[in-house]
Amino acid sequence: MEGDLADSAAFAPPAGATELEDGTALTPKFDSEGLLTAVATDARSGDVLMVAHMDAQALAKTIATGEAWYYSRSRRALWKKGETSGHTQRVVEMRIDCDQDAVWIKVEQVVGACHTGRRSCFYRAVPLGTAESNMRAAKLEFRDAPVFDPKAAYGKRAP
Amino acid sequence: MEGDLADSAAFAPPAGATELEDGTALTPKFDSEGLLTAVATDARSGDVLMVAHMDAQALAKTIATGEAWYYSRSRRALWKKGETSGHTQRVVEMRIDCDQDAVWIKVEQVVGACHTGRRSCFYRAVPLGTAESNMRAAKLEFRDAPVFDPKAAYGKRAP
Q: Is the CB of A37 less than 8 angstroms away from the CB of B41?
């Protein structure tokens, strides 16, 4: 029953470009796999914490509950952020983009978002200025230290 | 020649999970279409400006030049942000995520990023708390006013 209510039919289908961009109707444009891109930022620092995907059900549950739900492409499953680790995301605000194929959520992140133990998945910087012909010379620079032990938080499971 | 240098062979192929997540080698994991997800945030405000894609060439050019380049899926073309409108993005910092399939760039955005005339593509909020069974009742709320006239900036072209 819940699956029926929360599938893509729960949302009105995308209309023409004008309504999509300038209207007030929420008509998410799911891709061929039924997914939107979701970007979560830290409501306090503004840092991007993670980029993931939501299917219609994850989007509906996130809107309804104010807690972040995603769809895992690798596990092919709906997934409440923090369901294993306790590292949930309370959504402070949700925005949708011009063509309604991406959402941005500002969240209060408990402990850390990344399954590697960092607060953000974007813990490495890519140095700028490397010559276009020499990309293999670019060395990533670590910027954020772990904030939790992933083995303790997840056991053997993925986040 | 440039195309040869800048294709995905310009980057080393992704290694195992440990090296991918804990190493310093830049080994981007392009999807089946040869793309990464790219999130651009305003270096000053922290706001998410846009979500787009980069192919290997766009990524290499962004790293090399410090200006944002993307790949347009609809136009199937490499695209320098602002090439038509002048609304370029100077990259202050680039980060890559744990599994190297998404990059986050902090940018200095000239005027506005969105082809609709707003500074950010995420100019509408999705109200939280709508019942999961009643998603069609969710009404988007406009948060950001236009900062430029898209007709003047782009003529008849897409951004």
A: no
